[in-house]
TrEMBL record:
Residues 462-538 form the AMP-binding enzyme C-terminal domain. Pfam families: AMP-binding, AMP-binding_C. Residues 38-411 form the AMP-dependent synthetase/ligase domain. It comes from the Bacteria. InterPro entries: AMP-bd_C, AMP-bd_C_sf, AMP-binding_CS, AMP-dep_synth/lig_dom, ANL_N_sf, ATP-dep_AMP-bd_enzyme. This is AMP-binding protein. It comes from Gordonia prachuapensis.
Length: 556
């Protein structure tokens, strides 16, 4: 039932690890102990706001400790995995901290994931438990969790925020605050003794994915703390800040760049919202005095358009808007300052590690037309041509990186690691970038088979492999089509077998039946009699992207 070691975790070479340690990039402290120390320093400060729920640092830390002990009592052991699929709310934060304290590894799924993704993530991570909302946006997460428990050998505990059924555990009881002060102190002492190894994984993040199925990224306490520290410094976030979480909290960006964990390590306040919808977001920003938030370009665009339409001074407290996850069009970059009246920080990051960002005092041209530079001075980057030679500044090439918070491999994925990492541990992000002479990167495009829909990454291969399960498909290719609101959407090219016809609804129903997340569903179907191929015989996706872009521009 338990796993004594994280065998599938790829570690940094010993000499490099020693160097990161000696230079202070790795502090050898766990996220749990660091946040407990902050709570000791600022017990009465407000840490977390979620609607009517307001929690001090002391209360949050006490709830996390109590929950850590209760997870142990339920049978969770250090290095056990817990698949976390919770909406943005205080429970997400308290449970994540509880896992850190107990040495249990949260696997950060998204509320939009469905049977297909959760089955894969639970089995790949060998999760012992799954934490879900009950029914959320008309979807019965609890029912699905029970089905997964019935099907997966390792998975046996369902934690539900809401009304548990069929022997599920009530998450709100797990996270309850013991009312007795002495008990709280005893728990604190008990949990302090479990402090995990700082080189052990703190959490598993999900890769954007270019392969058929998503990969898991192991983030150790040492590396994640380094990531958080560096992004906190460049966002100039301190204890006076109020950080708004509007993106799904399990994403690296709102979780740790600097995100929720950065706000907690700084002694700042975090405000949770279930969605970035502008009317509610603006009301919350005004009511709570939010100073900093993170958005994907699609959300930044909505905020800009909403503010331009309504005017008003609801955003007065907002100091910084971080924008990343996909390329922010330059015209919107300029409007963050002129319409939202805050400083834009472009963030070009990845769950696999490396974070680039513009600095708050950079010249306007850097802030508005580049995606910034690495946040940590131990980050190393190389930009290579197809033959593997470094390209000069000003010329596009493929981005490779390594550093103190960029893990050297995905979890349990040796074959895939051999393809994604070069000798010397360089991770190839699949992005095509140009480095300017001032060191800032501009993302020109990508060399990976993925669709970036409003910052959510969709693997073309994953969609295609599922479409092939539909009888009568001769050939199919999923490609990105440009979209003014979301950046990109999925367009599916399909060659039917003789005598067969398809429409978009049939394809979408088929995929929905297989249990994939809705955001991955194709939004346009192009029925064609053939698909062009490249010289080496691969489907020519570039030609397809150009074809759909041309068709869309003509139909406007
Ligand atoms: C963030 O992380 P992921 O893992 O969902 O996606 C990483 C990929 C990058 O390789 C790149 O293709 C794309 O997303 N990307 C951007 C971008 N930021 C990310 N492409 C162009 N411009 C940008 N600013 O997306 C992520 C993780 C941490 C912080 C911010 C974003």
């Amino acid at each position: 039932m338990s796993h004594s070691t994280s065998t599938g975790v790829v570690t940094w070479p010993a000499d490099i690890a020693a160097d990161y340690r000696a230079k202070g990039y790795w502090e050898d402290r766990t996220l749990g102990e660091m946040i407990s120390a902050v709570a000791d320093e600022y017990p009465d400060r407000e840490a977390l706001v979620d609607g009517d729920v307001r929690m001090s640092y002391a209360e949050l830390a006490d709830r996390a400790d109590a929950a850590a002990a209760r997870l142990r009592d339920l049978g969770f052991e250090p290095d056990d995995r817990l698949l976390v699929q919770l909406a943005n709310g205080w429970q997400f934060v308290a449970l994540t901290l509880a896992c850190f304290r107990a040495g249990v590894i949260p696997v950060m799924a998204l509320p939009s994931h469905r049977r297909y993704e959760l089955t894969h993530l639970a089995s790949l991570s060998e999760s012992r438990g799954i934490a879900v909302p009950d029914v959320l946006r008309d979807f019965d997460h609890q029912a699905l969790a029970h089905e997964l428990v019935a099907e997966l050998a390792d998975l046996d505990v369902v934690l539900v925020s809401g009304t548990p059924r069929h022997g599920a555990v009530n998450l709100d009881e797990i996270l309850a605050l013991p009312d007795d002060g002495t008990e709280r102190q005893l728990l604190r002492r008990r949990v302090d003794e479990w402090n995990p190894d700082p080189d052990a994984p703190a959490c598993f993040l999900i890769s954007g994915g270019t392969t058929g199925l998503p990969k898991l990224i192991t983030r150790t306490h040492n590396d994640y703390v380094c990531n958080i520290r560096a992004t906190t410094a460049v966002a100039e976030l301190d204890e006076n800040d109020i950080y708004l979480v509007a993106l799904p909290a399990g994403h690296n960006f709102p979780l740790a760049c600097p995100g929720i964990l950065g706000a907690l390590l700084a002694g700042a306040k975090t405000v949770m919202l279930p969605s970035p919808e502008p009317v509610r977001a603006f009301t919350t920003i005004a009511a709570e005095g939010v100073t900093i938030s993170a958005a994907v370009p699609a959300v930044a665009q909505q905020w800009i358009e909403n503010q331009a339409r309504t005017g008003g001074n609801q955003l007065e407290s907002l100091r910084v808007l971080q924008v990343g996850g996909s390329r922010l069009p330059d015209e919107y970059a300029a409007r963050v300052g002129s319409v939202l009246h805050c400083t834009l920080q472009q963030v070009f990051g990845m769950a696999e590690g490396l974070i680039n960002a513009t600095r708050l005092d950079d010249p306007t041209d850097v802030i508005c037309t580049t995606q910034g530079r690495p946040v940590c001075d131990a980050d190393e980057i190389r930009i290579l041509d197809p033959a593997g030679a470094d390209v000069p500044d000003g010329e596009p090439g493929a981005l490779y990186t390594r550093g103190p918070y960029t893990p050297r491999g995905y979890y349990n994925a040796p074959e895939h690691n051999a393809r994604s990492f070069l000798d010397g541990g360089w991770y190839g992000s699949g992005d095509v970038v140009v480095r300017r002479p001032d060191g800032n990167l501009v993302v020109h495009g990508r060399d990976k088979d993925m669709i970036n829909r409003a910052g959510e990454k969709i693997s073309a291969e994953e969609i295609e492999s599922l479409v092939y399960r539909l009888p009568g498909v001769e050939l199919t290719a999923a490609v990105a089509m440009p979209d003014p609101a979301l950046g990109e959407r999925v367009c599916l090219y399909l060659v039917p077998q003789e005598g067969r016809s398809f429409d978009l609804d049939e394809v979408r129903d088929h995929l929905t039946g297989l249990g994939i997340a809705k955001y991955k569903l194709p939004e346009r179907l192009q029925i064609v009699s053939s698909i062009p191929t490249t010289k080496v015989g691969k489907l020519d996706k570039k030609a397809l992207r150009e074809d759909i872009a041309t068709q869309l521009s003509h139909s406007q």
